[in-house]
Amino acid sequence: MWLHVEPTSRCNAWCPGCPRNKFGYGLTDFVVEDLDPKVLQDTIKEYNINSIQMCGNLGDPCAAKNIDEQLQTLGNIDRLQIHTNGSLRKTSWWADLAKRFNHLGQFDVWFAIDGIGDTHSYYRQGTNYNKVIENAQAFIDAGGSAYWQFIPFAHNEHQIQDCIRLSQQMGFKKFEFIKNARYYDKAYHYNTGEKLDIRPWSQDKKFNRTHKIKNFVETKNCMHLDIPSIFLSSSGIVSPCCYMREQPLKDVDITKEFSNNNYRPVCIRSCG
What we know:
CATH topology: TIM Barrel
Number of strands: 10
Radius of gyration: 19 Å
Number of helices: 10
Helix content: 25-40%
CATH architecture: Alpha-Beta Barrel
Structural class: alpha/beta
Largest sheet: 8 strands, mixed
Number of domains: 1
Strand content: 15-25%
Shape: globular
CATH class: Alpha Beta
């Protein structure tokens, strides 16, 4: 079983479409905290976890003050994925990370890089593009398996081919597009207040709510049931998935709800 872990609700970035900074109007109401390593260790044992994905809803794993302590509790897992904006920590930390888990059957780090230079920082506000590239290269050079994740927007699609070429030159294992619905006509720079133009890229296919409901009912795509997986928030609560953050797993029976055609709005909105 996969455990999707939110190591922290801290983040150095101010991406306009993130729930913590929606529309660029400032942080939403949530507690800034790091996951207790003991809670992570206990959850791994209780649910017999063999695969872990460190990502989270509100924070970047590398922003956790106790990330090294959390990593020490992982035990004898088979697979580990870390999703990050990549602009935190020293290059030496990234090189050590690559060597630290090279014994696993699968260990990958997914770097969120949405363009080259200032184009990347247009959405990934608060990150340093050059620092991201340096950290990714240090990880790769030390033998790490890295993936380049790219969210296509209207403002960065002209650099897609350049990013693909750069990912190949650097030694990334794969370049991958990320599905996205984070388009806002009211988005502003977190520091300057400049209005941002966050629009869909030219290949985006828009679906209205009717289409999303129809698609979801037909496919019933659900990461909790399909993978299967569970989610552990930075506050230590185990939920069915990251979209149901803070809803205890014991209080939710997705299988029963689906069999009764009772679909939660969050399921349709997120997995539809």
